[in-house]
Amino acid sequence: MEGDCLSCMKYLMFLFNFFIFLGGACLLGLGIWVIVDPTGFREIVAANPLLFTGAYIMLAMGAMLFLLGFLGCCGAIRENKCLLLFFFMFILLIFLAELSAAILAFIFRENLTREFFTKELKKHYQRNNDTDVFSSTWNSVMITFACCGVNGPEDFEAIPHLPYSSIEKTTPEACCQRELQSREGMFVNKEACLAGIERFQNRQGCYTVILNSFETYVYLAGALAIGVLAIELFAMIFAMCLFRGIQ
């Protein structure tokens, strides 16, 4: 009976570590996707070190979970006490680090507010100056999502014009409607848009548009994080039970 129980625990340990392996692979892939940065969000929040390093923390955690899941599977199948102890100690450290990161993310969640992005936009945005990374990134986001500013075109009223601009305009070109939402897309009516005619402008703020676009993925990421923490906890319990059961 004891042997059957130990065998069952061994395969349960393998199963839990397989899920940790998959969770680590997902976090690793997500971290790489953010760092590759196809839409330029990393540059928008680059002024905030906490947000800037978040992708690298996610990448590191994903890589460690990926490796430990693999080691846990090997330790369980081969019934190696050294590997199991190594696995338990490191997954405990990762568990505590992830819990700390979740608490810090909750404490500093105000850095993702509408007011924060509005303040950063008004402080750093330089309109059509594509040599400035922040401005170029914001222009790419506004074109891609067919939005304007954080709250709407009114965000740009207090932003000064470029010294070499000969046309007095409030709305940047990136807020003008295009037939295709890309930098290569033709303007519907650029002159009318810059003249202030609203029906040729993208009037909705990017904060609302992006929040609606990624709302499902945010909940999915939260559910995944909770699931990974729960799996890690059970894996540590099984690792200790298996460690004590191996003669």
Describe the structure in your own words.
- There is one protein chain.
- With 247 residues, the chain is an all-alpha fold.
- It has helices at residues 2-36, 41-44, 49-78, 81-107, 114-124, 133-145, 190-194, 206-245.
- Helix 4 (81-107) packs antiparallel against helix 8 (206-245).
- The two termini are 15 Å apart.
Jot down its keywords.
mainly alpha; elongated; 0% strand; 247 residues; 8 helices
Amount of helix? 55-70%
Radius of gyration: 25 Å
The assigned structural class equals mainly alpha
What global shape is seen? elongated
The percent range for strand residues is under 5%
**What string, H for helix and E for strand, traces the elements in order?**
HHHHHHHH
Main sheet makeup: none
List the total number of helices: 8
Return the domain count: 2
The residue-averaged pLDDT reads: 76
What is the rounded distance between the termini?
15 Å
Number of strands: 0
Report low-confidence residues grouped into runs of 5 or more. Answer: 162-168
